Amino acid sequence: MHIRLADAEDxxxxxxxxxxxxxxxxxxxxxxxxxxxxxxxxxxxxxxxWRRRLEPLVTLTAWNDESLLGFxxxxxxxxxxxxxTSPQAARRGVATTLLRQAEQELxxxxxxxxxxxxxxxxxxxxxHHGYRVEAEEWLERDGVCLRRFRMRK
Length: 153
Ligand SMILES: CC(C)(COP(=O)(O)OP(=O)(O)OC[C@H]1O[C@@H](n2cnc3c(N)ncnc32)[C@H](O)[C@@H]1OP(=O)(O)O)[C@@H](O)C(=O)NCCC(=O)NCCS
What we know:
Elements: E1 2-5, H1 11-25, H2 32-38, H3 47-54, E2 58-64, E3 67-74, E4 79-85, H4 94-108, E5 115-119, H5 123-128, E6 132-141, E7 144-152
Parallel strand pairs: 4-5
Antiparallel strand pairs: 1-2, 2-3, 3-4, 5-7, 6-7
Bound molecules: coenzyme A.
Coenzyme A binds near residues 83, 90, 94 and 96.
């Protein structure tokens, strides 16, 4: 596995993995209408929106040769934003490798407190890495409420 920074040419691969991950790993924790609100299917991708979302973030990508295994996006205030692993690569340490690198890079910027809004899928992962739940949140999207957890380390 090798890690590199994402660039705009990776946008399509990142969006495809985002969808695959949610629809393969999410159903155990979320209802179909919740998954649809999280990652709308059946409509043309809004590339400008996706680019605007990624633009202010530092995005690390994990690869096996040409195959994208996962990605993580963070902000320089310690916020861990996106974290998605390809379903084919789940539970093989991809997200762990990305999170460790992000935390190390943040520490190099003098940040030693990290926070995220974890999905129900990701909550055990972040707990495994020492993050503690601060609050439960309900995110409203397209009229659907998604349960998630504000977690901090
Ligand atoms: C959460 C997610 C990123 C974890 O990715 P991953 O690469 O499979 O995670 P890792 O292999 O590094 O897991 C490390 C440890 O975290 C814990 N963990 C990870 N996924 C878990 C799960 N589904 N249930 C329970 N524990 C889990 C385990 O302790 C695991 O160690 P183990 O496999 O030796 O038991 C992945 O499940 C995912 O992409 N989920 C769907 C999208 C999502 O919810 N993203 C987060 C948005 S906030």
